[in-house]
Amino acid sequence: MMDATSRTDLRAEESLDAAALNAVDEAARAIAGVLDLESALQLIVERVRGLVGARYAALGIVGADDRIQRFITSGMSHEQREAIGPLPRGRGLLGLIIRKELSYRIPNIAAHPDSSGFPANHPPMTSFLGVPVTSRGRSVGNFYLTDKQGASEFTPDDQRLVELFALHAGIAIDNARLHQQAADFAIVQERDRIGRDLHDGIIQSLYAVSLSLEDVPDMMVSSPGEAEGRVDAAIDSLQASIRELRNFIYGLRPETFDGADVPAGIAALGEQFRYNTLIEIDIDVDPAVTKDLSPEHGAEILQLVREALSNTARHAKARHLVVTLRREPDGPTLVIADDGVGFDASGPVAAGHQGLANMNARATAIGATLRVESAAGEGTRIIAMLPKRADADGK
Prior knowledge:
Blueprint (H helix, E strand, L loop, with lengths): L3 H12 L2 H15 L4 H16 L1 E9 L5 E7 L3 H7 L7 H9 L3 E3 L21 E8 L2 E11 L7 H58 L2 H7 L1 H28 L10 H16 L2 E6 L9 H22 L3 E7 L6 E6 L16 H11 L3 E6 L5 E6 L10
């Protein structure tokens, strides 16, 4: 059975010529791949204005209280927008479309009984076309187009053209919103992870330093040698905390973790690790591995490497570390091996050692398997095996 949206789409297509349909198709393709919400909204307004030759166009995003929350325009300069003042409140013809959720073609705005006039500094407008934008049966916003160029008013075909484009616009807006929500959620997760790591590692270290220094004033009189030793140890601990803070700050750089260039990202992490820890590090990354990694998987790989390097710096007491990322028949394989003190991988996680849990969570999020091989005095190997990208060329 054909749903209401499909029937509307079909009726619109039946009444439009090939050139008009091609224009809608081209405009729809242009907006479909834009996932940044601000860019998507502005592009949608630009495209709908061009479709029907309107001098001005706007997309009003309405809140639950039926008031316009955002008003994206095309055809006006920034200075013109600023001169008009605050957002429209959704009265007059704008409010009519919000209330009725129907399309309206009006030859003369001023002559319509629902018109409430224009604010000061608003450019004069005559003809009007308003079309709701919906997605999955709910309102997303409304198109407002004014001043048909080369004609006294908008035509029925103009209306059908905008209604057809509105179906695509609603989907594009929803997709951009979902992408933004996912990005926001990822940011919140990353903040929580960093907060846990700071608390379990650096903050506890600083607290321990403060406790070790509490008795130093008295010890300077009774045991000056021990007091000196305490201060020296505190200085060493503070320097270690400074190095850890540098790693955290470096790990927040978006250019390193966008997943676009995994080999370069791993190389940058290795340089920073070598500089901060003086541990020798070798990196062996097959440049062709990027063919098997989506940008999202690439970003998580870089975060896995960052997490592993941080763990090595904090706990392993290693002299040498090797990072390998190779293409394998079943998918990319990441191996990070150190010659440090190792630990009992089958035992409970010690306080302040949340890195493995963080890496497990990241691996699970991208469908990878994570294996840890370690024993006391034998170093540690972390192996992450990722699924092969569906569209990889397999070469």
